[in-house]
Amino acid sequence: MISKLKKTVIYWLLLAPLVIVILFPFAVMFVTAVRPREELFVYPPRWTFSQFRWDNFVDMWVKTNFGGALLNSLYVSVSATVLALLFSIPAAYALSRYRFPGKGLYRNFLLMTQMMSPIVLVLGLFRLMVAFGLVNNLNSLVITYAAFNMAFTIWMLQSYFNTIPRELEEAAWMDGASHYFSLVKIFLPLAVPAMVVTAIFTFINSWNEFVLALTMIRSNDDFTLPVMIFSQVAGRYQIEWHHVMAATVLATVPVAIVFSWLQRYLIRGMALGAVK
Amino acid sequence: MKSALRSTPLLMIVPSLLLAMFIIGYPIIDLAWTSLQEVSRFGQLRGFNGWDNFAEVFSDPLFYGSLWRTVIWTVAVVGGTLLLSLPIALILNDEFYGRGLARVIIMLPWAISLTMTAVVWRWGLNGRAGLLNATLMDLHLIAEPVEWLATAPMAFATEILIGILVSIPFTTTIFLGGLSSMPQDAYEASMVDGAKRWDQLRYLTLPLMRPFINIAIVLNVIYVFNSLPIIWVMTEGGPANGTDILVTYLYKLAFRFGQLGKASAISLIMFGVLLVFTIIYVVMVMRAEDDGGAAGEASK
């Protein structure tokens, strides 16, 4: 048996190259975000710089309309998450607790929708939103994000619902409780952790989505964060890289922290659902 | 009463079914309809033109170029990801000091939108002031800055490497899920029989991981095949269409050149390819369930 200490050293050495490559963009972000503008293009290129310019964040906030994009992203991600959960909770409950005709078919349909990526449908979706007059309207993103996340949310919720013992509800029915009562008072409270975890992953997916937001949203005022940041680098003669990096720091770090804290639930979900 | 109970589950799934039909089903039908018509720049349908749009796609050298690069992109990213993710998952599944931290770091790229990752790398790889050049020059690996994204082959190779990097977390997660559901008693039995760690890996872990590896392959193929942001943000398919894959080419045709008929034809072709992979996936999941069920019953 190899000692744990020896294993630790070997493993970290093996992982080191990957860890460096993963952390490299974060370092690039921070170092550029706080760098004085004059020191962006120096020759030879170097990591060091003369002083921390925290004002970059303030300048960026004003110049890029960061606050507006932040609110748009929050609105879209929260609404899409709520909508997705409202549609998914009953469906997941039905899959977890009932036998019904067409159950297998419905699950296969969900798997299929999970595989359909927005990009292949983007032209059709755009035409759909034009027909409904929803282009340049954030609600077009709310509906589409909810729909594209539903397969994932239903699958996650179902795999957790399956772990909640059926006997608890049955005991309540024995005691004369109605199905509705047992659902609201017994089942749903137990399912809260699962719903929170699922909600956060849906939120992050929506927060990070790019293609649909790029397509449906045409005016600067309605940009979500990824599109706003993209618009700062796309087709510009002069890119204000220190502003771009300041914006990416603010847009990514909070999400990355929440995600890091929750990633083990994803692994557990995968093990529970055995990759369904 | 009984019939009311029976319809309950159906009522519970109907809303999700309708939403999916509306947002995912309808556009497919619309694309099929559009692909058979002549379409103006502004999206007006001008009547059927048979298979003209498809004929135009199949006589377009840029389509074949993009198709070929899509194959390279998908195979290289998925292959690279799997080769790296399996050892990573095996390491992360073992006990060592700082495992929690290692897991967090390796999952990090997943938390960040591909758009942001691509923007940051585009700057990090900047030919003049990029910090990758700074690092390599500090280490005396290169004498002067390299223009990473200026030529198509180099840019494409770089994009593939970044594609691998961002696909590792998801794939590792699938493998970790698989490893954590491995039957411990089988390992104990093999230890009693005097199996070496290497033998365990080869004859026990890998065969048991087969279903997870298969699913990781199919899911990654689907995701990577569809992935736009990395290439779009870093090079927009350029220089001179040299890094265009089908999705970037499709996006340009639809939203930049206004060739909507041709774009919907390509969408439909891609949909067909996706459908094939999806059916493979669905069949695999169903088979895994059957096996799982059988194994579960056998162990009782």
Automatic annotation (TrEMBL), chain A:
<feature type="transmembrane region" description="Helical">
    <location>
        <begin position="241"/>
        <end position="262"/>
    </location>
</feature>
<dbReference type="GO" id="GO:0055085">
    <property type="term" value="P:transmembrane transport"/>
</dbReference>
<dbReference type="InterPro" id="IPR000515">
    <property type="entry name" value="MetI-like"/>
</dbReference>
<dbReference type="InterPro" id="IPR035906">
    <property type="entry name" value="MetI-like_sf"/>
</dbReference>
<feature type="domain" description="ABC transmembrane type-1">
    <location>
        <begin position="70"/>
        <end position="262"/>
    </location>
</feature>
<dbReference type="GO" id="GO:0005886">
    <property type="term" value="C:plasma membrane"/>
</dbReference>
<keyword id="KW-0813">Transport</keyword>
<keyword id="KW-0762">Sugar transport</keyword>
<feature type="transmembrane region" description="Helical">
    <location>
        <begin position="116"/>
        <end position="135"/>
    </location>
</feature>
<comment type="similarity">
    <text>Belongs to the binding-protein-dependent transport system permease family. MalFG subfamily.</text>
</comment>
<feature type="transmembrane region" description="Helical">
    <location>
        <begin position="182"/>
        <end position="204"/>
    </location>
</feature>
<feature type="transmembrane region" description="Helical">
    <location>
        <begin position="141"/>
        <end position="161"/>
    </location>
</feature>
<feature type="transmembrane region" description="Helical">
    <location>
        <begin position="74"/>
        <end position="95"/>
    </location>
</feature>
<dbReference type="Pfam" id="PF00528">
    <property type="entry name" value="BPD_transp_1"/>
</dbReference>
<comment type="function">
    <text>Part of the ABC transporter complex MalEFGK involved in maltose/maltodextrin import. Probably responsible for the translocation of the substrate across the membrane.</text>
</comment>
<protein>
    <recommendedName>
        <fullName>Maltose/maltodextrin transport system permease protein MalG</fullName>
    </recommendedName>
</protein>
<dbReference type="InterPro" id="IPR050901">
    <property type="entry name" value="BP-dep_ABC_trans_perm"/>
</dbReference>
<feature type="transmembrane region" description="Helical">
    <location>
        <begin position="12"/>
        <end position="34"/>
    </location>
</feature>
<keyword id="KW-1133">Transmembrane helix</keyword>
<keyword id="KW-0812">Transmembrane</keyword>
<keyword id="KW-0472">Membrane</keyword>
<keyword id="KW-1003">Cell membrane</keyword>
TrEMBL record, chain B:
<feature type="transmembrane region" description="Helical">
    <location>
        <begin position="9"/>
        <end position="29"/>
    </location>
</feature>
<keyword id="KW-0472">Membrane</keyword>
<keyword id="KW-1003">Cell membrane</keyword>
<dbReference type="Pfam" id="PF00528">
    <property type="entry name" value="BPD_transp_1"/>
</dbReference>
<feature type="transmembrane region" description="Helical">
    <location>
        <begin position="160"/>
        <end position="182"/>
    </location>
</feature>
<keyword id="KW-1133">Transmembrane helix</keyword>
<feature type="transmembrane region" description="Helical">
    <location>
        <begin position="71"/>
        <end position="92"/>
    </location>
</feature>
<feature type="transmembrane region" description="Helical">
    <location>
        <begin position="203"/>
        <end position="224"/>
    </location>
</feature>
<feature type="transmembrane region" description="Helical">
    <location>
        <begin position="263"/>
        <end position="284"/>
    </location>
</feature>
<keyword id="KW-0812">Transmembrane</keyword>
<protein>
    <submittedName>
        <fullName>Sugar ABC transporter permease</fullName>
    </submittedName>
</protein>
<feature type="transmembrane region" description="Helical">
    <location>
        <begin position="104"/>
        <end position="123"/>
    </location>
</feature>
<dbReference type="GO" id="GO:0055085">
    <property type="term" value="P:transmembrane transport"/>
</dbReference>
<dbReference type="InterPro" id="IPR035906">
    <property type="entry name" value="MetI-like_sf"/>
</dbReference>
<dbReference type="GO" id="GO:0005886">
    <property type="term" value="C:plasma membrane"/>
</dbReference>
<keyword id="KW-0813">Transport</keyword>
<feature type="domain" description="ABC transmembrane type-1">
    <location>
        <begin position="67"/>
        <end position="281"/>
    </location>
</feature>
<dbReference type="InterPro" id="IPR000515">
    <property type="entry name" value="MetI-like"/>
</dbReference>
<comment type="similarity">
    <text>Belongs to the binding-protein-dependent transport system permease family.</text>
</comment>
